Each structure stands twice: as structure tokens, then as C-alpha cells.
Amino acid sequence: MQEPDPELQKRLPPGQVLTGKWPVLTYGLTPHPSMRKWTFRCFGLVEEEVSWTWEEFLKLPRAEITSDVHCVTRWSKLENRWEGIHIRELMKHVKIRPQAAAVMIHAEAGYTTTIGLEDLIDDDVLLALKHNGRDLEPDHGGPCRLVVPKLYFWKSAKWVRAFEFLDVNAPGFWEVNGYHMHGDPWKEERYSDQETRAMQQMRAEALRKLRDR
Ligand SMILES: Nc1nc2c(c(=O)[nH]1)N[C@H]1C(S)=C(S)[C@@H](COP(=O)(O)O)O[C@H]1N2
Ligand SMILES: [Mo]
Q1: N or C end of the chain, less CB within 10 A?
Q2: Ligand 2 centroid vs 73 CA: distance in angstroms?
Q3: Cα of 152 from ligand 1 centre, angstroms
Q4: Domain membership flag for residue 72
Q5: pLDDT string in tens for the chain (213-residue length)
């Protein structure tokens, strides 16, 4: 057996296992959207709604980012070269209202996921069209998927279609079904019961302090 490379091991968050393959994880079937009708939309707490057709979207300047993927089901895939539209490039066209603090990510077939505004609009976030030099395969989110490498991969919505800017974090598909609102792999924020447990611990701690005064 090959010895694990310590440099790679350092990039592996707690409880994760390295994989060279790229598993497909989809709830339901792979959608095949009509590109003639495809749009990408920013709505909610914005000064003005913005929308791109596929043709317009393809004209946006491209960026390349290499990042690691960490799935909550415990596989990690390192060194993925993504090409697409950088979130800051896209946001040049969107005036977000000051009350906005969270974003509901909308994808085909009703899939949603929630991300804090500061986690979404960050240097490492891309709307990816390509992976390792090839067009994203439909199973992996082609034609366009979100990539937010610092959060578990369920936040990286495949077949992404819209950002809805909100004042509070509302739970999306997996968050409603027990996954964590934030989902930082380095803190193992996997399930929402951890969140409730953490909140309960904080509350208990606060009560104890009050009692001890
Ligand atoms: N639209 C959509 N996006 C999704 C999912 C999904 O079911 N639908 N699954 C999520 C989960 S749980 C993971 S781990 C990754 C998997 O991406 P992959 O199939 O390209 O590995 O996509 C995420 N994005
Ligand atoms: Mo996942």
C-alpha cells in the first residue's frame, strides 16, 4: 500500500477520507435544462433584479481556481481545477441592499441551499463551467454549478439558476433535512443537531453564570 502523503493529509479535514474518483451525489435525477430558456437571476434584497441569458452569461470574463472538495458523506477530492465566472465578477453587476446577510441558492428541480453572504462573496467562490479543462458533465452540475470550497459540498449547488438575497439565513433542501446551516468541514459542522446542541450548551452556560453570580 502507498504511504499517505503528509502534505495531502494536512489538507484533509477531520473525519474525511481521500478519493481519486469523483462520486456523483444527486438527490433525484440529473436535469437537462433547455439552454434557450436558461437564465441566471439575482433577486430578493437587491436594488434591481439582474438576469443573464446563457449567451450573456458566456460573455462574462472567466477565472480559474484550484480547490479541494469535501462531501459531508466523508469523501474529499483534492486539487480540482475549476474554470468559470468569479463571484466578484458577477457581483459587479448586482447592487445588494445593506440589509442582505444571507443567500438562498436556487438550482434546477427545486434544490436549494443556504450560504451566508460573506461566505458566498469571497475570493475562492466560482460559478464553474469547467472541471480540469473539460465542460462540466451533466451529472456533476453542467452546464453551471456553484463551487464554495470552504463549506461541505452540498452547498455547492449543481445546475445553479439564481441567488436570492435575504436578511436572515433560511434553511434550504438539506438544511431542512437535518444538515448544518453553516457546514464548515474543518469544524465538522455536519448536522443541525450539533448546532442545537451547541446552542443549548451556550444557553446552559449562560444560565449557570447567571446562577453563580
Ligand atoms: N442541484 C443539486 N446540487 C447539489 C446536489 C443535489 O442533489 N442537487 N447534491 C449536493 C451534494 S450532497 C454534493 S456532495 C455535491 C456532489 O457533487 P458531485 O455529484 O459533482 O460530486 O453536490 C451538491 N449539489
Ligand atoms: Mo454531499
Answers
A1: N
A2: 6
A3: 10
A4: yes
A5: 456 688 888 999 999 999 989 999 999 999 999 999 999 999 999 999 999 999 999 999 999 999 999 999 999 999 999 999 999 999 999 999 999 999 999 999 999 999 999 999 999 999 999 999 999 999 999 999 999 999 999 999 999 999 999 999 999 999 998 999 999 999 999 998 887 777 677 778 878 888 887
Residue 26 in domain = no
Q: What is the SS3 assignment for 185?
A: helix
Non-local CB neighbours of 114 within 8 Å, separated by 6+ positions: 102, 103, 104, 105, 155, 169, 170, 171, 172, 175, 181
Q: What is the per-residue pLDDT for 200?
A: 72
Verify whether ligand 1 is closer than 6 Å to residue 157 (CB atom).
yes
Measured between alpha carbons, how far is 191 from 117 in angstroms, rounded to an integer? Answer: 21
Strand order in the sheet with 39-44: 50-53, 39-44, 160-166, 102-107, 112-116
Query: Which helix or strand (DSSP H or E) is residue 79 part of?
Result: strand 75-86
What is the rounded distance in angstroms from the CA atom of residue 115 to the CA atom of residue 148? 9
**CATH number of the domain to which 100 belongs:** 3.90.420.10
Domain span including residue 200 = 40-212
Beta carbon of 163 within 6 Å of any ligand 1 atom: no
Ligand 1 touching residue 186 (CB < 6 A): no
Q: Does residue 21 form part of some domain?
A: no
Does residue 23 belong to any structural domain of this protein?
A: no
Cβ(19) – ligand 1 distance below 6 Å: no
